[in-house]
Amino acid sequence: MPLRLEIVTPEAKIYSEDVDFVTLPAVEGEMGIFPRHIPLMTQVKAGEVAARKGGQEFFLAVGEGFVQVTGERVAILTDMAIRSENIDEQKVEEARNRAEARLKEKLSNDEQATVSAALAHSLAQLHVKRRTRR
Predict the structure, then answer these.
(1) pTM, entire model
(2) Distance between CA 79 and CA 76 in Å, rounded?
């Protein structure tokens, strides 16, 4: 029995395929999901989603969002999702450096949250890109 993985951002549906297994970065910790998983809904934090299909693994960097799991479907709604092959490591490294420098400045709470989210996005992308390069 396949498991349908759907990853959606406000801009587009990024991924929609049947897979054998999914791991995702939930706020409670990394979760592994097989077909027929118990239904649940939880928050997703910035990190890596890995999906296995036919013995091959696919990796995506995701931002914060929510996941809904049913027995046959994993639906992730997130503010960012990028396939590993679409990550430009140099640009992401530059964005990480800018965010880290901004966090050293005196920022309002809103600016702090925005810059922290940008840093989390950058770190997630770097982790996924460097993992797939090994």
Answers:
(1) 0.85
(2) 10
The reported pLDDT for the residue numbered 71 is 85
Quick one: which H or E segment has residue 115?
A: helix 109-133
Task: Identify the CA nearest to 123 among candidates 85, 68, 80.
Answer: 80
Mean pLDDT of 10-27: 94
> In this structure, what DSSP letter does residue 35 have?
T
For domain 3-84, the CATH class is mainly beta
User: Could you tell me the residue ranges of all domains in the chain?
Assistant: 3-84, 87-133
Q: How open is the CA angle 125-74-52, to the nearest 5 degrees?
A: 60
Q: Decide if 62 contacts 47 (C-beta within 8 A).
A: yes
Structure token pair of residue 27: 């706020």
